[in-house]
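Read as amino acids, tokens; as here:

___
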Amino acid sequence: MYRWINDENGRHYQVILTQDLFGTWTLIASWGARDSRHGGAKRTSLPSREAGLARLKEIDRRRRRNGYRLVRGKLPDAESADS
């Protein structure tokens, strides 16, 4: 599980990369805010674990650009995720 938070506005973003019993890789993302009922979730099927890891790096790059910081989980090859 990977979790990002934005301390300025109290928002959070969480992602789980998992494989089901049939071998399909799925990325489950959920988001919300500390003082709000607004939030949501999205499930995305992926062709492989590598595709999921690539998607995680994209999410990490986007979250960090928007002021979030990673507080749970460690991305593979994390030093390239900061660039």
The chain has one domain: 2-75. The CA atoms of residues 29 and 63 lie 12 Å apart. Confidence is low (pLDDT under 50) at residues 78-83.
